């Protein structure tokens, strides 16, 4: 990425620091009889620096927004990893790389799984455009941001984009983050569907042991207006 902008090789990597973060999210999208009425994942951009996505090899669903149109991501290339630019790369590159908005649509007949690994700099490192990406002809577009990941979640839960507040004009509004329950495994039951979510910890997901996972239960709960929401203690099956 640095080389493609004619910048120092390590200029982005140096920002990751000693305690760079890697968080894995295992997504399970059950079949949904009304794909026209519900989304698997609402439109969002990732708060990471980069995200590595392994899509379901049989069921499509991921779409990216470009010029006000949604584009499907094909799955024809087996075992391909999709590398997505996240907000923190947009900030560090001073907007040369854009963090695209994407969503996941549901399928009426088939379930879909995906794994997203979010790679981010050490949260203690402030994020700002690297020197080489700012010049007289390209003024600095983003301000210095502390702990981008936390700000991202606060904004995300309100359906807003933190990157917009990272531009130089708008101030960040610091508000308390929604409480997330310490339970590790959530099963949300909506009629015959279930959604499996993993917070920090480890659990079994479709026969694989899942470790080091982080996602945001309150946020997901908003996406699925569950008629009945049942949470189970870690490790138990419904
Ligand atoms: O399911 C996918 O293909 C992508 C998931 C995604 O965008 C995410 O977990 O942030
Ligand atoms: Fe995403």
UniProtKB/TrEMBL annotation:
The keyword Iron applies. Keywords: Iron, Metal-binding, Oxidoreductase, Vitamin C. Residues 20-121 form the Fe2OG dioxygenase domain. The keyword Oxidoreductase applies. Gene3D superfamilies: B-lactam Antibiotic, Isopenicillin N Synthase, Chain. InterPro entries: IPNS-like_FE2OG_OXY, IPNS-like_sf, Oxoglu/Fe-dep_dioxygenase_dom, Plant_2OG-oxidoreductases. It comes from the Eukaryota. GO terms for molecular function: L-ascorbic acid binding; metal ion binding; oxidoreductase activity. Belongs to the iron/ascorbate-dependent oxidoreductase family. This is Fe2OG dioxygenase domain-containing protein. It comes from Populus deltoides.
């Amino acid at each position: 990425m640095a080389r493609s902008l004619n910048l120092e090789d390590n200029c982005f990597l140096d920002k990751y620091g000693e305690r760079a973060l890697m968080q894995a999210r295992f997504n399970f999208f059950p079949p949904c009889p009304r794909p026209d009425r519900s989304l698997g994942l609402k439109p969002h951009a990732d708060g990471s620096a980069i995200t590595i996505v392994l899509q379901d090899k049989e069921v499509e669903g991921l779409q990216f927004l470009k010029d006000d149109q949604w584009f499907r991501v094909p799955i024809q290339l087996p075992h391909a990893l999709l590398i997505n630019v996240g907000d923190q790369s947009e900030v560090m590159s001073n907007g040369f790389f854009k963090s695209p908005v994407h969503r996941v649509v549901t399928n009426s007949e088939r379930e879909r799984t995906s794994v997203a690994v979010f790679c981010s700099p050490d949260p203690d490192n402030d994020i700002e455009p690297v020197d080489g990406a700012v010049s007289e002809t390209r003024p600095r577009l983003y301000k210095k941001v502390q702990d981008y990941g936390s700000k991202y979640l606060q904004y995300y839960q309100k359906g807003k984009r933190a990157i917009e507040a990272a531009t130089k004009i708008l101030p960040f509004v610091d508000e308390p983050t929604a409480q997330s329950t310490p339970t590790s495994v959530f099963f949300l039951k909506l009629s015959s569907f279930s959604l499996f979510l993993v917070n920090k910890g480890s659990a079994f997901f479709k026969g694989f042991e899942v470790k080091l996972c982080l996602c945001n239960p309150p946020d997901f709960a908003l996406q699925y207006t569950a008629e009945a929401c049942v949470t189970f203690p870690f490790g138990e099956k419904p």
